[in-house]
Amino acid sequence: MNRLSLKAPAKLNLHLQVVRKRKDNFHDIKSVFQLIDLYDELTFEKTSKNLELKEKTNSIKNNLVLSAATILKKVTNCDLGAKITLRKKIPVEGGLGGGSSDAATTLIALNKLWKTNLSKKKLSELALQLGSDVPFFIHGKNSWAEGRGEILESITLPKKWFIIAVPKTKISTKLAFQSIDLGKCKKDQTITLKDFENGITKNSFLDWVRVNFPELEKIFLELQHIGNPRLTGTGSSMFLSFNNQEEALNKYSLFPEGILVKSIDHSPLMQLIE
Prior knowledge:
Layout: E1 3-21, E2 27-47, E3 51-55, H1 64-76, E4 81-87, H2 98-113, H3 120-130, H4 134-139, E5 143-146, E6 151-154, E7 161-165, H5 173-179, H6 182-187, H7 193-197, H8 206-212, H9 214-224, E8 230-231, E9 238-242, H10 245-252, E10 259-262
Parallel strand pairs: 3-4
Antiparallel strand pairs: 1-2, 2-4, 2-5, 5-6, 7-9, 7-10, 8-9
Helix pairs in contact: 1-2, 2-3, 8-9
């Protein structure tokens, strides 16, 4: 096998609570990761030595895809290379996990092409070095997440349709975590998986986003006329949830600039790792 073409799925955070800041400067969270049928597309071709990444519209530097390939190459002492082509369809800096999903896809694909034969557990350990939600995309199933996001418990979520609003304003994850009111987080009641299953959800960043980004507040209020808007990740994307396609299509006509997607149970990458 010398070539693989794969889809890297996006995610929504149906729940995201920041619990505390850790001594290592990361944050403990409790979250629910939901996979959706919105994908970046990546093609991997095995080469003799160097790593090369091309995006369909421009060349990328400092991309998590290259970081993932480099760390796998280093840890396994692999002397092979790869030509990687990335077609971005997941909006960037929107809380949809596109970069993290691309990184996880790269680890899985090159582990297969290079025959480095790392276990899923080891790939997850490498993934955590790249980002807190990269291990989720290695795991590849809808999950309740704790720790930094790497402690994952597979859960069954009901089938849903979503309308995603993708604002032009982008939010840096680093800035969001630096700006969050940790005192308020400590005072908030910790929401458990059982609470979530009983319909209790929150996003610790929503109030901060609404206060500090007027464009996002405007979109939030617009979405409130259609349903119950929620923030995914640290933003800036927001979403509405619906129980069936008919209801989602009816509401989509009121917000046609959004992206209409449906939930999926597992990543298409699972066939390569399990």
